[in-house]
Write a structure and sequence with these properties.
Length: 342
């Protein structure tokens, strides 16, 4: 029997990283979790262990520390890395650009360097639909133009995609995939892992669940005068477990030598646009509660509408989003209740 492949998940104790770790372990891969716990605690790591009945090695390192990354690669035989270890708050990135450029670029470069030092490997980069900016046409395909980033955070996603492309082309044994996520929401159906935002949530769904839990008084819906059917923004909300499965499919594609190019890009979305108001109403309906919300002015930097054409990922990765928005919003509420002890 062939040896199990080992996947490094940097940022593996975070929201998406923990869901990906569960899917990789369930698919039979070995996983090494690396995290410096700068933006999360151990809840999700312990949740992963409870769900899978396994305790993947946990490397408490900062991926910005090149020596520490090199040490990790010498302790484990890493066949692929999925890189999540990055900051992700758009507003904070505007205030602290150097923090974002230093952290998000350095950590990724260190991981690529460790593979390059070994003559190659497989790298999956966690990119974002933010690279499309305000698209001229929707849905967006991977061929849709990238727009100039409107925040340092968004710029780090574009720069890291380019770093991966260029490094793959210079290093014969290296392969790379960038997955462009749309709006990841929800939690594992076990309610043992999920999103744990620190302070006031920036994103819509954690704000909704915290409002429902009484932690926030009222949800502000940013703008109801957009040129959309109900005046609120349109997004492509992708269930985090569906999103996690896309990573397993992409890693398997790399290991099985099924890539068409050494660097590939896939949209990971549902292909189904939903407005903020539709999402709020779906949350109320599926969970049988009323949410306190009000309309507020537009939020700076928000695009009107962006959703994915996921057909390339459907075809090439053999992956498709399967969970309904109702299932997803009920998992988000179950997770909020779990962590609040409601
Ligand atoms: N929104 C509200 N009230 C809130 C929070 C959000 O009305 O309290 C609205 C926003 O205005 C937007 C929608 O809900 O219309 C979604 O907002 P999120 O902050 O949840 O998500 P974004 O679409 O702004 O951004 C997300 C990720 C980014 C990523 C981007 C890519 O948070 O990291 O998708 O499109 F870059």
């Amino acid at each position: 029997m062939s040896e199990k492949k080992c996947v490094l998940v940097s940022g593996g104790a975070g929201y998406i990283g923990s869901h990906v770790t569960v899917e990789l372990l369930s698919a039979g891969y070995e996983v090494v979790v690396a995290d410096n716990f700068s933006n999360c605690d151990r809840t999700n790591y312990e949740g992963v262990c409870a769900i899978t009945g396994q305790r993947p090695p946990l490397e408490e390192i900062d991926c910005c520390d090149a020596k520490a990354v090199e040490g990790l690669f010498s302790r484990h035989k890493i066949d692929a890395a999925i890189h999540f270890a990055a900051f992700k708050a758009v507003g904070e990135s505007v205030e602290e650009p150097l923090l974002y450029y230093r952290n998000n670029l350095t950590s990724f470069i260190n991981i690529l360097q460790a593979f390059a030092n070994r003559g190659g490997g497989n790298v999956l980069f966690s990119s974002s639909a933010t690279v499309y900016g305000e698209p001229d046409e929707t849905p967006v395909t991977e061929q849709s133009p990238r727009k100039p980033a409107t925040s340092p955070y968004g710029n780090t996603k574009q720069i890291c995609e380019d770093i991966l492309r260029d490094t793959v082309s210079a290093c014969a044994g290296l392969r790379g995939i960038a997955l462009r996520y749309f709006n990841p929401i929800g939690a594992h159906p076990s309610a043992l892992i999920g999103e744990l935002p620190r302070g006031i949530p920036n994103n819509l769904v954690p704000f909704i669940t915290q409002t429902a839990a009484g932690v926030r008084e009222v949800l502000s819906i940013f703008g109801n005068d957009y040129p959309t059917p109900d005046g609120t923004c349109l997004r492509d909300y992708i269930d985090v477990v569906d999103l996690a499965r896309a990573h397993t499919c992409a890693v398997t594609r790399m290991f099985e030598g099924r890539m068409r190019e050494d660097y590939e890009i896939f949209n990971v979305g549902t292909g189904r646009p939903l407005s903020v108001l539709e999402l709020v109403r779906a949350f109320e309906k599926v969970n049988g509660l009323k949410l306190n919300y009000r309309f507020a002015p537009r939020r700076a930097g928000d695009v009107t509408a962006v959703w994915a054409d996921p057909s390339l990922a459907n075809r090439e990765l053999g992956w498709k989003a399967t969970r309904s928005v109702e299932e997803t919003l009920s998992s988000a509420w179950a997770w909020e209740k779990h962590i609040r002890g409601i």
